[in-house]
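Researcher: Please predict.
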Amino acid sequence: MPADSHPQAQSAARAGGLLARVTAVFRLPNDDPRKTLAVALVLCLVCSVVVSATAVSLRPLQERNAARALKSEVIKVAGLDEAGMSLEQAFQQIEQRLVDLETGEFVEDADPMSYSYRDAAKDPAASSALDEADPAGIRRRPDRMPVYLVRRDGQLETIILPVYGAGLWSTMHGLLALAPDGRTAKALTFYEQRETAGLGSEVAGERWLSEWPGKVLIDEDGEPVIEVVKGNVDPDTPNAEHRVDGLSGATLTSNGVTHLMRFWLGEQGYGPFLARLGDDDNRS
C-alpha cells in the first residue's frame, strides 16, 4: 500500500500543505491586504484563547468570592455582623438548610453548601416551568431553595429566605429576614440589581430598606398581602402594616418587588414551608 494512501500520511500531507500556504501568506509584503487579514485573524485567535483560559482559571476564585459575598449579606440581614467577629465565626451561628418547595419539608439528601438555586433554575430536571403563573417574571422556579435559620438558646429567632424576581431592567436578588412567626419582616436586602441609577436602584438603599422591619407580609390566613404602593403610606390608614412606600420615579421596580414578594411568600414559593413552622419536627 503506498505510504501517501495511509490516513495518517494523508493527514500529515494536508497539514503540511496548510502550513505551507499560511507561511506563504506571511511572506507577502506588509502592505498586502491578505497578510493584514491573516495577522488580524491570528491575533483574534490568540486573544480568544487567552481570554478563555483566563476565564476558566479565574472561575474558582470568582465562585469563592461570590460565596463569601453571599455569606456576608446573610450575616448582615440576620443582624450578626458584630464587631470583632470574623465572617466564618458569624456564619457558624447560622443553620443552612434546603427546602422542597412543593412539600415545605427540609431536604436531607443534599448538601446545602454546594447547592445553587441559579443553576437549578436552568435545569429542567431540577426546576418547574411557570408558564403564565409567573408574577415574579422568573420563568422557571427551582424545586428546592436554601433557607438560613438563626437560633438562640435552641429557639428559632430568624428565618432568612432568598428571594428574586424581575424589576424594570434586571433580575433583583435579595434576602428577606422573617420573625419566628413566619409573617413579620425583620430585615430585607437586595444585594444584586441593575435598576435605574438614582431611581429603581434605591431598592438597595438603606433608607427604603429601613421601612421593612415590622411589616406584616402575610395575613392570618397565610395569604401574602405585602404591597409596595405608589407614593407614601399613611400610618393611620387601614392595612398600613402591610404596605411600604413606593420608590419615587420607579413604579415598575416597585411593582416588581411586590410581585416577587407575593410569589416567594405564596404557595409556589416558601408558603408550604412557612405553614409548617409550627411543626417542631420540621424545624429540628
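Model: Residues 174 and 190 are 4 Å apart (CA to CA).
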